[in-house]
């Protein structure tokens, strides 16, 4: 990340010397100036090695509690997964850096982190498709068989998603319960054999009983907690509902 050099050097013909046009930002120095929990924005920042692009850079310095948790996670990765981090990376773990081209008039710096949190919902969708439905795995087969496989998986995803969204809306509206999408997907998928059996038998009463049982199971085992005052998706989107937290 760079900023324009206020005092660049020039050649005799008045052409600016490229290597002096920008000054690289020192993230460690910027982090040391900030207080824990503080958010700072650098609007006139540039990114890119060869071609510099103007962007907004938002820096957030983690609190002491957040830093301790990140250090714990980093130590686990180094020990269990064999990942080695440089000393500079370890020093910079106390700061979050967000880069965006969204105008500050549209999204203030205080809301950038929330938007990045929402972005992960897209990643969760892809994760469920790959983990539970193996949409990314297929053997070398004929085109017709591949199309049948994809259609079957997409139909299963459609049934699962429709069931999830309907039950999530009802649980939120009637019981003020927010579901964990990833876990709820897994629970609903385990009911597919029962769905298939009820549909084959054309037994609407049995199908309704299965849905009711699934509804209660999701409300019991698929609910999202509000631990550590961490915002959920509905909190970020401004969905108002009451929730309770258990006190140990």
UniProtKB/TrEMBL annotation:
<dbReference type="GO" id="GO:0004803">
    <property type="term" value="F:transposase activity"/>
</dbReference>
<protein>
    <submittedName>
        <fullName>Transposase</fullName>
    </submittedName>
</protein>
<dbReference type="GO" id="GO:0006313">
    <property type="term" value="P:DNA transposition"/>
</dbReference>
<dbReference type="Pfam" id="PF01609">
    <property type="entry name" value="DDE_Tnp_1"/>
</dbReference>
<dbReference type="GO" id="GO:0003677">
    <property type="term" value="F:DNA binding"/>
</dbReference>
<dbReference type="InterPro" id="IPR012337">
    <property type="entry name" value="RNaseH-like_sf"/>
</dbReference>
<feature type="domain" description="Transposase IS4-like">
    <location>
        <begin position="62"/>
        <end position="158"/>
    </location>
</feature>
<dbReference type="InterPro" id="IPR002559">
    <property type="entry name" value="Transposase_11"/>
</dbReference>
